[in-house]
Hints:
The chain folds into 2 domains: about 20-140 and about 280-360, Rossmann fold, CATH 3.40.50.2300; about 145-270, Response regulator (Rossmann fold, 3-Layer(aba) Sandwich), CATH 3.40.50.2300. The protein is about 45% helix and about 20% strand. It has 13 helices and 15 strands. The protein has helices spanning about 1-15, 40-55, 75-90, 100-115, 145, 150-155, 175-190, 205-215, 225-240, 260, 280-295, 300-320, 330-345, and strands spanning about 25-30, 65-70, 95, 120, 135-140, 165-170, 190-200, 220-225, 245-250, 270, 345-350, 350-355, 360, 365-375, 380-385. The strands form 4 sheets. It has a 5-stranded parallel β-sheet with strand order 2-1-3-4-5, sandwiched between helices. A 4-stranded parallel β-sheet has the order 7-6-8-9, with helices on both faces. It binds (3S)-3-methyl-2-oxopentanoic acid. (3S)-3-methyl-2-oxopentanoic acid (1QQ) binds near residues 100, 123, 126 and 226.
Amino acid sequence: MRTLTAILALGLASVSLAEKVTTPLPIGIAVAQTSNTALLGQEQVIGARFAEKYINARGGVNGTPIRLVFQDTGGDEAGAINAFQNLITKDKVVGIVGPTLSQQAFSADPIADRAKVPVLGPSNTAKGIPQIGPFIARVSAPVSVVAPNAVRTALRLDPKIKKVAVLYAQNDAFSTSETGTFQQTAKDQGLNVLTVQKFLTTDSDFTTQVTAVLNADVDLVIVSGLANDGGNLVKQLRQLGYKGSIIGGNGMNTSNMFPVCQQFCDGIIIAQAYSPAQPSANNQLFVKEYSAQYKKAPPQFAAQAFTAVQVYVDALKVIDRKKKLAEWELADLRVELNTQILAGKYNTPLGVISFDKDGEVQQKDFYVAQIKMKDAKTGTFVFLK
Ligand code: 1QQ
C-alpha cells in the first residue's frame, strides 16, 4: 500500500511538473540542409544564423539571448516531420521556423499545430498553408500575390508575347499551386496557353516536355519546379533551341541554381517578395551588415528566414514586458507567443508586415528580377523597375 501511494504520488508529481522556458531562448529552425532541397534551404540557414547574431548583438529579447536549434528536414515529408518532432519534444523550442517546402509543410505543420507550437513558414507559398491550423502562419507571401508580377513584367519587356507554354512539377504542392496562378494570370492577360506539360522534381531528362514546347512554337515558357529540376529543364530548353522568354517560379529563386543551368540561366524572370533596395531603415541596416559579412546582397530566402526569426523575437519582447519569460511555463508561452505573433506589426527587411487572422502575411512591396549570367558559374539577380 505504501509503495502504491508512493507510485501514485510520483506519477502526480511528474504530471504537474511543468517545464519552464530555458535560456538562451530556443527557437527551432527546420529547413533543408541536405538533399536537392538544400539548394533552397542553404540560404535560409544563412539568413537565420545571421538573424541570431544580429539580434543577440542588440540584446536578444530584452537582454536574454536567443539560441537557434537547427534540425535538418532533408527534402521530403518524413524528414520534416522528424525535425518538427525533435524540436517540439527534445529541444523544447518556443516556436519553429520551417519547413522549406509547402510539400513538407502540409505534413509537418499539423504536428506542431496539434502540439500547440507556433510555426512561421519562411518560404511556404502554396495556397492553404496558413489555413492548416491556428498555430500556423507564414512570412512568405503566397503565389497568388507574388507570381502574377512575373507575367506582367515579361509582357512589359516583350509586348509581342501571345503564345505560352506552362510546365510544372506535379509531385510538388508549391509547384501545382503556383502553376494554377500562372495559368490564370496568363488567361487574364489575354495570352494563349498552348501546352501544359508536367514533370517530376526527380526528373533529369526533359526531352518530352521540351519537344512539346518547341512544337507549340511559343514565345513565353513558364516553369514551376524546384531549383535542380527547374534548372535542368531550362538548360535543356535552351540547348534544344528555344529562344523565347522564360519565367521561373519561386522554387528557382536562388543563385544555387546557377551551377545547374549555367549560362542557360541567363534571362530567366523571377518574381520576388524581397528586394535589398526596400528603403526602410531596418532593411538598409540589415543589407549593410549582411553584405559586409557575405560579400553579396541578401537573397529573398535569407531575408525571409531572418524576418521569421525577427518576428519571434519582437513578439517575445512584448510578452516579456508583461511577464518575465523565465516565469512562464513552456506550454503556456507557446500559446501566448502564437497569439502575440498574430497581434503584432513588424518592421522587417520585407517592410512593415503583419498577419491576418489565419496567419497569412500582410505585406506591401513586391518586385521582379531577371537573372544575368556573367559566365557559366557566376551571375546575379538584376531587379527590374
Ligand atoms: C514552397 C516554395 C518553395 C519552392 C520555396 C523554397 O515556395 O514550397 O512553397
